[in-house]
């Protein structure tokens, strides 16, 4: 079929990228999201494509999309009310967590309230030992009592997380069977089915997040499927996963925690594809939408992977792109706390009502309204003419806060911008430190509706090499979904010393995982799909508390090569921490396998060089860095490779606005990217 479609459904906008395989042209579009009517934005977008480009939905042979519905539910704590069924004597697992404060250098840092409060945790009498032997079967009476307690507490779903279920999930399955028998209306998730990893808290919080967002995700996906069928799209849709791959809808409904970073991962994969195609080797992707700012590491086209990524207040222990998500975006709401101090986020205006300046019923000022009040946006329509920016309305929304703080509207709005940037700075610095990276060696690749608007301000605070703004930054996440590979993860907990005996076992376990992975690919996507297998292992020196993920060669596992496995761990440990010990005993905790099936990638076309000077559309008055400036407004469509600009300057285009502050310069490269760097005298 002729068309391949990638869609990213964000909290404020829904982005489309359509590849016409006949012409190798990528067509883009941006429409307002409809959280009140999920799926309707798909109908709107496809209808506009049909009218504008002649797209026939029956000719769509591939349809994938990413969504932020999961992560927004967790960040804003708008999921369902849950009960936790835990092994008797271990009911404080979420309350205790890891007894860490979130930010060790913040004297005022406090541990967040658990996702499931202690009064909604119920004891199940059962026991499985560490080797997976069932010592005590499930006591039916304790399950019935727990169900009654869950109902009395007004719970809408149940999480079952029992001791040592990663070894044997029999007792969890028994509890679930009883719940389905007597309370089928309560949607029940088992931790061993979601992600069977060692460590009770990690497995439990992952299962809890899955259940927390599952009803919302299922409802959303069903409406999404219905919208596609109504429009005549016959190909089954695929969903982007947190690990940067794609999966089918049914898997997404069962394992919705795998898509908690769906929209985020789509953007990272899009950034990775673009960085590789354009020759940028050290990139931090910066995706700022309406609700959150997401930062990930990309080196030589490879996206850094991680476990335990922080989503809102909680870690999530599934394979995912290593991303830091901050509850700051273009729609983040400003408010005054009890001490009279202005705060930003994490609540967002979303698309309904949206920022005040979008004229859709919003009354509380947002980060986008701050840029409008300062004169940096509002000089044309946004979102492919989806919204018209009302600067006067934005200024009026900021006026009460300005009066309360005793400063001007511009100063109040700029303070809001600085607060948002400060929050992003703290978490991005943590990500750089985690991987031992020097920000001066990295570019920001800024995208999303608000990424180009805010990216330069964050880059200069971090002392980054510069900012790259791609030709269509507002829809890069949709492009990421279009080029994402099919990908799935498998894990087996082994937990033993790395010796000849364990190495012999690794060979059989690796073969078992390989067969599971290939069976999954054949069942979900077809028997003739090409694929690659990549093994890794969670390893540590004996006595360490936590392990690191070490890439492994399949040949080492097949030949039980202990020396090669030990050396690989030493090398990875040295890279991360600057030291290793070849003589120290090593433990292997988990064996991992990733199966991937490649998706065709479109080629990027180079553009003809500029033949005329830069055209300035007009000059505008904008408040930047504490003063008014006369700022050139340039239309992105008029820029060509070789054009140069000097800040302050505003670059306007259909899907977003790029704001370049003073003492920065812009150069257009051969692919049409904006390369924004500090002026040479400032380096």
Question: How would you describe what is shown here?
Answer:
With about 675 residues, the chain is an alpha+beta fold. Among the domains are: about 5-75 and about 215-240, Nucleotidyltransferase, domain 5; about 330-420, no CATH class; about 485-595, Dna Ligase, domain 1 (2-Layer Sandwich), CATH 3.30.1490; about 620-680, no CATH class. Helices cover about 35% and strands about 30% of the residues. Strands 13, 14, 15, 20, 23, 24, 31, 34 and 35 form a 9-stranded mixed β-sheet that branches. It has a 6-stranded mixed β-sheet with strand order 3-2-1-4-11-12, sandwiched between helices. The protein has a 4-stranded parallel β-sheet with strand order 6-5-9-10, sandwiched between helices. The model has no long low-confidence stretch (mean pLDDT about 90).
Enumerate the spans where pLDDT stays under 50 for 5 or more consecutive residues.
Answer: none
- SS-based class: alpha+beta
**Amount of beta strand:** 25-35%
Tally the helices.
17
CATH topology of the domain at 486-597: Dna Ligase, domain 1
The biggest sheet, with number of strands, parallel, antiparallel or mixed sense and barrel status, is: 9 strands, mixed
CATH architecture of the domain at 486-597: 2-Layer Sandwich
Shape: globular
Give the beta-strand count: 35
Average pLDDT, rounded to a whole number, is 90
Computed over alpha carbons, the radius of gyration is 26 Å
CATH class of the domain at 486-597: Alpha Beta
Oligomer: single chain
> What proportion of the residues is helical, as a percent range?
25-40%
* Gap between N and C termini: 51 Å
